[in-house]
Amino acid sequence: MLQTLLQLDRQLFHFINTDLSNPFFDWIMPWLREPKFWIPLYVFLFVFCIWRYKKTGVIIIACLALTFGVADYGSASLFKSFIKRTRPCNDPAMAQTIIRRVDCGPAYSFPSTHASNHFALAFGFSLIFYKRWRWVWLWAILWAGMVCFAQVYVGVHYPIDILGGALFGILVGWLVALLFKKLEPKF
Prior knowledge:
- The chain is built from 6 helices and no strands.
- It is an all-alpha fold.
């Protein structure tokens, strides 16, 4: 069963990494995974929360920072060092068929820290603001999904790495959103 799942994971990876290859994706996908590309969005959200919600905005930012910190530490330091799955771009069995679009890096692959971080922030933000803006979850999850798809497309993660990171991020985002609701019940 596990071998079948890993084989399916590799096939889906090859589909995304090679079969979907096109000049537009080759240009945009490396950017989508870079902090220079998405940090302006997070800076905007930081300023918006402080400006619009004052003291509550500070609590929102603190909760989102906690969300990021727990998701990042959990995926990068705890899970990866325990599971030790080789990245597809470092796997000798994949070397002949993979399209490498960015530097690979020496770290392990499962779970994807990008997926954990972005889905934790997206899910936490969505749960905090859902009653005020019902559509916010769609844009937040779409954003996180695009960043994660880029991770597979450029060749640094398998789809299961993304799924594992996303699920862990969703759990962290949900738990911290619950904490926020306890801290700020009138929001």
